[in-house]
Amino acid sequence: MRPESFLGRGAYTPARAARLLRLESAEVGSGDVRRWAFGYKRRGQSYSGAIALDSFSKRTGALSFLELIELAYISGMLRSGATWPKVREAMRVAGAMFPNEEHPFAHRDWFADPGGIYTRLGRERGDNDLVEMVGAAQYAMEGLLRVYLRQIRFNPETGLADVWYPLGDQRPVLIDPKRSFGQPIVAGGVRTDLLASHVRAGDSHRDVAAWFRISESEVEAAVELEARLTEGKG
Q1: How far apart are CA 189 and CA 208, in angstroms?
Q2: N or C: which end of the chain has fewer CB within 10 A?
C-alpha cells in the first residue's frame, strides 16, 4: 500500500487503537475495537460495526483518527451505562442529524450537547422515542464528555475532531493525524515512544531534552503517556 495513502488520516491497528482508548478505560481490548469497528459473527448471525468505516479502513484494517475518536465516544457511552441498542440508536440519530458526515460521533456538537441534539431531532421528526441518548446514564455521560472536551480540539470549519490531547490540553502531548501518521508526539514534533525509549535506556530527561531540542516537560509527558499505554498491554 502506498505510504501517502496514510497521510492526513492517521493509521491505527485495532491493538494500537485499544491501547489509546485504554487511556480512558482499562476495560477496552483489541477484540472490543474489532467488534465495534468491523462487526462480528455470533451463532451464525452477522452483526455490523457501530461506526461507518472509510474504504481505506475496510481494505487495510487500519483505522483513521476520526474513527478512533468515534470509538472513544462509543466506549464512553458504554462506560456511562448505555446499552448496545442505545448506542445503535444514537448512531441512527447522528446519521440523520449529519446526513453528509461520515463520522458524526467525531463532530463537536455531539460532544458539546448530545442530549440536546437528540431531543431536538426527535421534536423535528415527531419521534417520541428520541427522548434521551443514554437514559438514566445521562449525567455520567455528560461528565465524561466534559473530560473529552478538554482533550479534543475541533476544526472550526468542519466541526470535526482535529487533534487529541490524551493527557489533557495543558500537557504537551498530542495525537494529530497530519503529523507522524497520527502517532502520539510531543509539542516539538518528536514521537513519544522514541523519547520514552531513551529514558528507559538510562538517559536523563535533561539529556534527552537537549538532544531533541525540546523541553524537559515534554520528555516527562512522553514518558508518562508511554507508561500508561504499556499498562495492560496485550
Answers
A1: 14
A2: C
**Whether residue 111 has pLDDT greater than 70:** yes
Is the confidence at residue 209, as pLDDT, over 90?
Answer: yes
Q: Please identify, among 108, 126, 149, the residue that sits at the C-terminal boundary of a domain.
A: 149
From residue 215, give the alpha-carbon distance in Å to each of 165, 171, 223: 17, 12, 13
State the residue range of the domain holding 98.
1-149
Residue 228 belongs to a domain = yes
Cα three-residue angle 88-183-62, rounded to 5 degrees? 50
Is 157 contained in some domain?
no
The residue whose grid cell reads 438514566 is 136
pLDDT tens across 148-168, in order?
A: 778 999 999 999 999 999 999
Distance from C-alpha of 83 to C-alpha of 209, rounded to nearest angstrom: 46
* Alpha carbon distance 164, 184 (integer Å): 9
CA–CA distance, 35 with 55 (Å, rounded to integer): 17
Distance of CA 205 to the CA centre of its chain: 29
Contact 183, 175 (CB under 8 A): yes
Strands 185-186, 173-174: parallel, antiparallel or unpaired by DSSP?
Answer: antiparallel
Model pTM? 0.85
If one counts every other C-beta atom within 10 angstroms of the C-beta of residue 140, the result is 16
Distance CA 86, CA 76 (A): 12
For residues 105-121, b (16+ Cβ closer than 10 Å) or e, as one string?
bbbbebbeebbebbbee
d(CA 15, CA 131): 35
